[in-house]
Amino acid sequence: AVLAWMKRCFHPALVVEGYGITECGSVSMNDAILPSVEYKLEDLPELGYTSKGDPARGEICVKTKTMFSGYFGDPAATAAAFVDGYYRTGDIGKEYVDSEGDLHVKIIGRIKNVTKMAGGEFVAPESVESMMMTSVHVSQILIDARGSANAVTALVVLPTETVASSLETEVLQDLRRIAMAANLPAAEVPVGVRLLPVGSSWTAENGLMTASNKMDRRAIKHKYGSLLDTMHPSGSSGGSASARATAAAAAVEYPHPNPNECSLKDAIVQIVLAALPGVEHSQIFSSDAPITMV
């Protein structure tokens, strides 16, 4: 979202996205590993990521001509930072092939931020957040993934000062629309949202962003912990009653009946019953006349 915004601001100038590390220098540009850089994806079995998967995923480990030799006076940290001569970046990468057939590596999260959900799925919040930033309702967003929950929730800073409780459903519906359009797993589709006005934006000055302008997840969760907890009551993996109600109101796009498993008529019944809970099955069709798709 930030890259798209910068491209619009500086058009027609060329704007690219670079990835580099203090310990190693430049690594990639627009997800393409630089020719001078050697890399490999190290398996992360505890997170369900493997370099032999489809797609290949794992910790990005690199060798560069400008990489450091170690941390001064800290041999233990130096030993932990390398594997087979490659520097462990702590970033999770996913390989993909672009439209021209070239291999690229996209960063999808940080190892320390990945959470195993109650259903066994692993969620990297940063990857979900980058997608949700495309919503017109989002100025800043934190995706809250908890091991006791089946799905994530979101804390959103709006681009305006107006915060109405009725807006939560609208925002959540938009976030869910984005998630479904991207075919995200169910665990990564937000089931609850809480809103903050633009005046509560996270900055380095108020301690909620780092000096390098990265979101300080720990500080934000500490400050807004009680607000986030309203969507994750103790002992419940399904979210609070209000979060479930908001999610239900925002989920009118579900279900997605499989046309190979049910008739068109049955599919319409499923969708109408989901969108209009007060409607009875007998009210949808007045007869058993067949329906033809045109």
Structural account:
This protein has nine helices and 13 strands. By secondary structure, it is α+β, with helices and mostly antiparallel strands. α4 (167-181) crosses α7 (241-250). The strands form four sheets. Strands 4, 5, 6, 7 and 8 form a five-stranded antiparallel β-sheet that branches. The radius of gyration is 23 Å and the shape is globular. The chain has helices at 2-10, 75-81, 125-132, 167-181, 217-223, 225-229, 241-250, 264-275, 281-284; strands at 18-21, 25-29, 32-33, 38-42, 57-63, 82-83, 86-97, 103-110, 115-116, 122-123, 140-144, 153-157, 193-196. β11 and β12 form a beta hairpin. 24% of the residues are buried.
Mean pLDDT level: 83
Our estimate of the beta-strand percent is 15-25%
Radius of gyration: 23 Å
Q: Major β-sheet, in short?
A: 5 strands, antiparallel
Please write the string of helix (H) and strand (E) elements: HEEEEEHEEEEEHEEHEHHHHH
- Total number of beta strands: 13
The parts where pLDDT drops under 50 for at least 5 residues are 249-255, 286-294
Structural class: alpha+beta
Task: Estimate the helix proportion, in percent.
Answer: 25-40%
Give a summary of the structure in a few sentences.
The chain has 294 residues and is α+β, with helices and mostly antiparallel strands. 26% of the residues lie in helices and 21% in strands.
Keywords:
294 residues; three-stranded antiparallel beta sheet; five-stranded antiparallel beta sheet; 9 helices; single chain
Summarize the topology.
Layout: H1 2-10, E1 18-21, E2 25-29, E3 32-33, E4 38-42, E5 57-63, H2 75-81, E6 82-83, E7 86-97, E8 103-110, E9 115-116, E10 122-123, H3 125-132, E11 140-144, E12 153-157, H4 167-181, E13 193-196, H5 217-223, H6 225-229, H7 241-250, H8 264-275, H9 281-284
Parallel strand pairs: 12-13
Antiparallel strand pairs: 1-2, 2-3, 4-5, 5-7, 6-7, 7-8, 9-10, 11-12
